[in-house]
Every structure is written in C-alpha cells, then in structure tokens.
Amino acid sequence: MLANDNIPDLVSANALSELGGTYLDQVKSTNSDTIVTSVTYKDSVYAFPFTSNTWFMYYDKSVFTDDDIKSFDTMLSKGKVSFPLSNSWYIQAFYAGNGCTLFGDGTDEAAGIDFGGDKAAAVTNYLVDLVANPNFINDQDGAGIAGLRDGSVNAIFSGSWDAASVKEALGDNYGVAALPTFTVDGNECQMKSFAGSKAIGVNPNCENPQIAMSLAAYLSGEEAQQAHYDERNILPSNTNITLADDPIATATADVLDHCSIMQPIVSAMSNYWSPAENMGKNLIAGDVTHDNAAEKTEDMNTAMNTDVAADAEEATE
Fold this sequence. Notes:
By secondary structure, the protein is an alpha+beta fold. It has helices at residues 7-12, 21-29, 33-38, 72-78, 88-97, 117-132, 143-150, 163-170, 209-219, 222-232, 247-258, 273-285, 293-304, 308-316, and strands at residues 2-3, 40-41, 44-45, 48-53, 56-60, 81-83, 101-102, 113-114, 136-138, 155-158, 174-177, 181-184, 187-190, 193-200, 260-262. It has two domains: 2-52 and 194-262, Periplasmic binding protein-like II (D-Maltodextrin-Binding Protein, domain 2), CATH 3.40.190.10; 56-191 and 270-316, Periplasmic binding protein-like II (D-Maltodextrin-Binding Protein, domain 2), CATH 3.40.190.10. It starts with a strand and ends with a helix.
C-alpha cells in the first residue's frame, strides 16, 4: 500500500508495475477522473486506488451557521479557527486559491512552481494579517482537536482520520463541510487543498507478479472497499459505492470536485515541501511582515524551484 505521491520514486526504482488490460479497465471504470489522475505517472497507471487522500473542515454548529462556513473571514469574525499554517500540506491552499500553480496542471514538470509575483505576495500579506488575528490559532501538535474538546477552538481543518476524535469533542454540534473562500485584496478566492489517493501497487520483481496483481485488484475492488468502510470507516474511491448519508463522504466529494488541486507526483515536487513549511513557520514566528512579504515570497518561490539534491551533488564533486 502506498500514498500516490510515492509513485515517481517507486517507478524510478523499478518497484511498481504498470497496469494494463482488465486491471487498467478496473481502475478507470470505477474511479473518478481525479482519482485516476492521482495514480497516473508519465501517461501510465501504476496502482489500484482504494481511498482518496485530502482534507476538509470540521466545525461547531453551535457557533457557525450554514452561511458562516462559506467564508473563512466570516468564521474568523465569529469564532476561534485553527488551521495548520506551518504544515506544508495545508498552507498551499491559500496560494493555489489565488492562482499560484505547481507544475502547470500538476503534470508539467518543466513548468515549475509558480508561487511568486504579485498574486503570491498578496497571499503572504493576507497570511500576515491572519496570524495577527486573535481568533486564529495555528494547529500544531494536536492544538486544534484539544481546543475543540475544551471549547477554545470552534473549527479545524483535517481529514477523515480525525473524525472519531472530532465527533467525541463536539457531540451534537458536530459539523463537516468542504472548504470556505477567503478574500485577498477584495477578491473572493476558493481555498484549495491537495487531492490525492492511497493505493495498492505491485512490485514487478516479486516471485508471482500475476498472482500479486490479481490480489491487488481484489483488495482494491468494490467488495473490499465496502468492507474497509464498514469495518474501519475508510472512505471508498469506487464510484459504485454511494454514501449519501455520510457527511464526511459528502464533504470529501465536494472538495475533490470543487475545492482542490491534484497533488503533483512529478519528481521535482520534493523541492516544494521545506520552503512551504518554512514560510508557515516564519509567519507564525512573526518573521514575515508586510514590509518584507514580497521579498520573503520570492525567496520561497526561488527555493521551491531549486533542486536541492542536485545542488548538493554538484557541491560534492
């Protein structure tokens, strides 16, 4: 089993078999285009998806109305909102929401990362103000769920893995929704999470690759996904399974359809994570201000487009 962003490294190591024939048909006919794209690398499909991998919003229904949760800024005016700004898997939601891109549509490695210029600096300035807002709390080391339990936090951003803890904390006030909008320089922007999947792959070097392929197909099939959901509440990616009464399934589907970008699985994506995390940490620490936001944004963008591994290799030669 693997997260879809591991596919490039596994393919490079000759550790994943390309799918074809009926196995490829199974993946394409029982999953959304978004999920199929998540396991596609260089025009080939390399794994059987069995669940999506993204995040959405949990909130306290006694604090926020259905209209309130449409706007991040409105929520901040009415209650305490916790967001993992120092986590690089989350902070991009603001930059992507204002038009910044990662490798074009997520598959064009030559396009690089575009987290620079006025559009990105405007987001950084927005985040400077966000951090200064007394109703904002950085969600780090479990601060968000702990706050839901004691009432010091009214909304958090996370995934299905935290559902049980949030339900326990909020009880009858348990609310789940897709992602809100936020306003940058007077323009309404849609927050956009990374979307990916968890999947099952087959090592081409195993002793019985055909048997392994059949097993992977079964373990990711409709019957197995239904069992995963019934036994462990793992949301299925199989489109033949309907979960209309599950609020998490509804929120996840909404995010995948309207409030996300595909998490790129190109090799250069590895250069994104540390600069994004550093930006979040520096914002929280107060090291990024309105005076230096544009400069810090360009520094981040430059770092994201610098191949650290290649530079290190050159330095040792």
